[in-house]
């Protein structure tokens, strides 16, 4: 029998996934779950045919160039691949895969949770109760806005955007979207396509971000574009913090231009812009989009499916172009 391929797994994965890796591979499972430093990663990669990584491991052009020649593949435990320099990977002939589909439901749930939490001021309300600062009921106490029947604008209409739209229809929201191209009619349903973001923004009571972070989308939601939203709009982000200009968003929340924001992702996580913590109208979560028992198992299995295909001499199903 040929020796099983060696995999460096950079983070501690769910038990079910670790068992499968231990069964089928010679796997370095990083049981202690520390984030590997660049040097430690490169040192341990010397014994690896492939890496299974999370977005906490930045695969810059420099790191990719320094990878031992033996490493042929990077299987990402994430749908986002902005932590990998794809051009550098392609140049080196490094195969890169991700885990699409399996986390779309979980992430769309968090998008809806953020919309509701921001609109109904849930975080603020919870803080009030916990701090024993809830002293009254009154007809005008702690009023929020409803998402029911409002206009939702989706920036990006891929798998997660589409499921978010489906859930939002349950709240009778009117769906608008901006995407590189319009969806086929049967997928789009009643969702209205906008070729430009500038055209869509003035219509959005709620804006939810579902595009990948790329050179084109970095800082997409800047001060000029945020200014195009109606007064009192709500901004929700479950994609990547880099799509939003923090200073501009914080200023819009502070001035009351925006009613609220719901954020699950940030620039430079977990060391987020401190301005967010001071804003009562920012509803903040620690990157929980895919954080369910079911989804993390499914992501791990999908990441291993990609390794299995590659080492069986097949095209990995989720190879990133
Ligand atoms: C994860 C994510 O929390 O898939 C992504 O792109 O951001 C989330 O699913 C995390 O990146 C898992 O490694």
UniProtKB/TrEMBL annotation:
PROSITE patterns for the chain: D_2_HYDROXYACID_DH_2, D_2_HYDROXYACID_DH_3
Top-level taxonomic group: Bacteria
Cited InterPro entries: D-isomer_2-hydroxyacid_DH, D-isomer_2_OHA_DH_cat_dom, D-isomer_DH_CS, D-isomer_DH_NAD-bd, NAD(P)-bd_dom_sf
Keyword Oxidoreductase included in the entry's annotation: yes
CDD domains: GDH (cd05301)
Listed GO MF terms: glyoxylate reductase (NADPH) activity; hydroxypyruvate reductase [NAD(P)H] activity; NAD binding
Gene Ontology cellular-component annotations: cytosol
Residue ranges annotated for the D-isomer specific 2-hydroxyacid dehydrogenase catalytic domain, each copy included: 7-320
D-isomer specific 2-hydroxyacid dehydrogenase NAD-binding domain segment(s): 113-289
Keywords, in A-Z order: NAD, Oxidoreductase
Assigned protein family: Belongs to the D-isomer specific 2-hydroxyacid dehydrogenase family.
Protein name as annotated: D-glycerate dehydrogenase
Native source organism of the sequence: Rhodobium orientis
């Amino acid at each position: 029998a040929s020796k099983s391929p060696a995999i460096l797994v950079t983070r501690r994965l769910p038990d079910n996934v670790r068992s499968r890796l231990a069964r089928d591979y010679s796997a370095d499972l990083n049981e202690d779950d520390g984030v590997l430093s660049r040097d430690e990663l490169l040192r341990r990669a010397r014994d690896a045919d492939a890496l299974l990584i999370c977005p906490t491991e930045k695969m810059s052009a420099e790191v990719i160039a320094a990878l031992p020649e033996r490493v042929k593949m990077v299987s990402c435990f994430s749908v986002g691949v902005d932590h990998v320099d794809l051009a550098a990977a392609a140049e080196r002939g490094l195969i890169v895969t991700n885990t699409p589909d399996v986390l779309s439901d979980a992430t769309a749930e968090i998008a809806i949770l953020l919309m509701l939490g921001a609109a109904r001021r849930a975080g603020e309300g919870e803080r009030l109760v916990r701090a024993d600062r809830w002293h009254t009921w009154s007809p005008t106490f702690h009023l929020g806005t409803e998402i029911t029947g409002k206009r939702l604008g989706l920036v990006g209409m891929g798998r997660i955007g589409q499921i978010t739209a489906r859930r939002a229809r349950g709240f009778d929201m009117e769906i608008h979207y901006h995407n590189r191209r319009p969806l086929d009619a049967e997928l789009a349903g009643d969702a209205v396509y906008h070729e430009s973001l500038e055209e869509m923004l003035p219509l959005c009571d709620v804006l939810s971000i579902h595009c990948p972070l790329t050179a084109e989308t970095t800082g997409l939601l800047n001060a000029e574009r945020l200014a195009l939203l109606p007064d009192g709009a709500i901004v929700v982000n479950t994609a990547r913090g880099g799509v939003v200009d923090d200073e501009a968003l914080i200023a819009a929340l502070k001035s009351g231009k925006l009613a609220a924001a719901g954020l699950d992702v940030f620039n430079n996580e977990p060391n987020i812009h401190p301005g967010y913590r001071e804003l009562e109208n920012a509803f903040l979560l620690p990157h929980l989009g895919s954080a369910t028992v079911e989804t993390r198992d499914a992501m791990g299995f999908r990441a291993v499916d990609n390794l299995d295909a590659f080492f069986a001499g097949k095209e990995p199903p989720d190879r990133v172009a």
